Amino acid sequence: MKKNIRLLYIYRLCSNDYGPQQHVHALNKYCNIVFTISNLHKEGKNHFVRCNSSLFSIFYFQIYTSFLLLKYRKNYDIILHRISCGDFLIGFVCYLIGKRYIPEYNGDLIQDLIDRKKNIYFQFIQSIFNHFNFFISYRLYLVDSNLFSLFPFGRSQIKTKSLIINNGFEPIDTININKNSHPNLFSNSTINLGYLGSLAHREGLNSALQLLQDFVGNLSLIIVGGSIKEYKELTSSLTSKVNIKHFSNRSRVDALSILRNCDFFLFLREAKASSHCLSQGSPLKLLDYFYLQKPVIFSELPDHQKFIDMSLGIYLNDFISYLNGNFQFQFNSSQCISYTSTRSWSYVLRKFNTFIESDNS
After folding, report:
1. How far apart are the first and last CA of the chain?
2. pTM for this one?
3. Are 267 and 284 in contact (CB under 8 A)?
4. Per-residue pLDDT tens for 117-151?
5. Angle, to 10 degrees, between the axis of helix 284-291 and the axis of helix 18-30?
6. I need a labelling partner for 235 at 20 to 30 A (CA). Which of 77, 142, 220, 293 fits?
7. How far is CA 214 from CA 232, 245, 323, in A?
């Protein structure tokens, strides 16, 4: 007779990691997780481990979590572990005690280290940790196949060992978005661009600022995300007066309410001259953009071509030609509806639940 698989979920996040928090909240809500170990007491069902982003806290979290794994090893069958920079000990302990271990990768951690200006030694160590977690894992949970490039030494096994579970989104009643909208933010005399999320350099917002400077008076930009300090650093190099409105980190409903009247959204993630991912994982912001049924301006990365083919957006260089009257662009809003119809969290996580249930032996 089959027994119920008891799933343990481990994750360590910063308090302002809004996208990742949406992800772990969805897993807690839609998957049969018995209990969690995390540093976010709002999410965890059982164990809260106080931890911040310092190097000491990272290792403390792993050591204390390892103690909990040993203490309660009879209470769970499979461990799902959202991998953060520096994680290796938890997987090693799972291997020692013979528990099935599924590391969850949501992005390129080496690129995260580059963004944090960590040197090549940190990057090399993280690469070793990635491969260690890969080889001791029972399965890999990846949010996109573009993350295969994190494991160059596991190419022979990567496809058969990986569960590709794309990110999803939580549909919001559009009435709530509309009633909280901010129509006074927008100018009828300019094209209004919108951006949601991190202000990290890899997001390509420098390209957007250059675009604003080249077309002063024709474009305005609304940014929702990042701190005031990050915004000031981002705009410090501007040499001309451009129309930008910035809102620090907001709730998702408020963010979408602010952005809903934009004409275009920005997704200008940059390609890196390295072996790392051309597009990091499965970005949540794209789903929110498409949910608002507006076209997206993309950087020219291979992963973005499928959206261009679906008439969901336009490449940045083509958008510049569009502004100059040299390019015709047609947006197909029905494709937004089609694309997002199968990307709700409750829908995409069925695949993971099905795998866990089929493994119930």
Report:
1. 8
2. 0.85
3. no
4. 788 998 899 999 999 999 999 999 999 888 888 88
5. 80
6. 293
7. 20, 18, 11
Chain Cα centroid distance, residue 111: 13
Instruction: Give the whole-angstrom CA distance, residue 344 versus residue 294.
Output: 18
How far is the C-alpha of 11 from the C-alpha of 43, rounded, in Å?
10
Residue 278 has pLDDT above 60, yes or no: no
Helix intervals (H) in 97-151: 109-115, 120-136
* pLDDT score for 22: 87
Buried b (16+ CB within 10 A) or exposed e, 309-337: eebbbbbbebbbebeeeeeeeebeeebbe
The stretch 60-64 carries a mean pLDDT of: 91
Rg of the Cα trace of the chain?
Answer: 21
**Residue written as token pair 């599924």:** 102
Q: Are 220 and 256 in contact (CB under 8 A)?
A: no
- Tell me the three-class secondary structure of 196-212, residue by residue: ECCCCHHHCHHHHHHHH
Query: What's the mean pLDDT in 168-178?
Result: 73
Does the pLDDT of residue 273 top 60, yes or no? Answer: no
